[in-house]
User: Fold this.
Amino acid sequence: MSRKPDYGFTDSDLSRIIEMAWEDRTPFEAIASGWSLSEPEVITLMRQSLKPASFRLWRKRVSGRKSKHLQLRHPGIERGYCSSQYKLRSRK
Assistant:
């Protein structure tokens, strides 16, 4: 039995959705705009994609977290990621 839900996503898309769901600063609304998944659908996807203990950790982490919901965020926070998260490293 496959643990992955069948939303028609590629493995790469599914991996990115899970990564975004784990990120503290990425609101559920950002996932909804990128992949048309509501918060309950993200929860279902996470439940089916993660091991049970990992899912419980994630739910405990995001439950009630203000940064995961745009309407609960401080108005001064306009980005969905840490300012240093996506800086390119110089090659030597």
Remarks:
- The first helix runs from residue 11 to 22.
- The radius of gyration is 14 Å.
- DSSP finds four helices and no strands in the chain.
